[in-house]
Amino acid sequence: MVRRLRKTKKSQKYNYNRNRKRLNKKIHGTGTVKCPEIKNDMDFRKNLNANISEMGLAFDVNKTLPVPNAKRERTKLARYVNGFLEEDASDLESESTRNPPPKIYVAERLEKDSKEFVEVRFRLSRGQVRFITGMIDAYGFNYKAMAQDKRNYDQETWRQMRQKVRRFLTIPQQCTPYLKRKGWLDCDMSDSSDPRWKEYGTDDEE
């Protein structure tokens, strides 16, 4: 029997303040299902793998879409050369005629939801909004002047400043109050003839 080091033995103390039952559930549990489509059709008497398979989904993507195996491809080629093509075709026909999963509508519902348009919920922080609006008040849309301002602590380039301003203008919930205060709410941003929306220091000028 190998003797343990004194330091190792000393550091291994039982923690009486730890809830062992809760810890065991955390280690061996599958976690909470956050997807409502999957959660509503879950059969908790079965394991997670069986539930996912019944819904027409893949529990392990590596098994569903495996990495191409050169050895497997050579075996198929050898079977084709040796005249086993008819047997492989019969196996493929049996797989294609297999009954669909009983809860295939879950996969169809998820596919339909993924194709629907989702509103962008990105928001800038209050500090970023104050910084961008202050720069626009001081320099308009002259991004090179913004980059040289002393408040530009992060030393961002004029292209980064332009990206921030354009992103701010694409968030109606944050830019609409500012445009209303400036009196630019009824203006057309795409109108290049309007001097208020003229951008300086863009790629077109270089």
Structural summary, described in words:
Belongs to the NOP16 family. This is Nucleolar protein 16. InterPro entries: Ribosome_biogenesis_Nop16. Pfam families: Nop16. Keywords: Nucleus. There is one protein chain. The chain is mainly α and 206 residues long. The chain has twelve helices and no strands. The longest helix is centred in the middle third of the chain and has 14 residues. The protein is extended, with a radius of gyration of 31 Å. The model has no long low-confidence stretch (mean pLDDT 82).
Helix content: 40-55%
Q: Which parts are unreliable, with pLDDT below 50 for 5 consecutive residues or more? A: none
Report the sheet-strand fraction: under 5%
Q: Looking at the structure, what is the overall shape? A: extended
Q: Span from first to last CA?
A: 77 Å
Largest sheet: none
SSE run: HHHHHHHHHHHH
Question: How are the SSEs ordered, and which strands pair?
Answer:
Blueprint: H1 6-11, H2 20-28, H3 36-40, H4 48-54, H5 61-64, H6 70-81, H7 85-96, H8 104-115, H9 126-139, H10 143-147, H11 158-169, H12 172-182
Helix pairs in contact: 9-11
In short:
The chain has 12 helices and no strands. The protein has helices at 6-11, 20-28, 36-40, 48-54, 61-64, 70-81, 85-96, 104-115, 126-139, 143-147, 158-169, 172-182. It is extended.
Entry keywords:
206 residues; 53% helix; 12 helices; single chain; mainly alpha; 0% strand
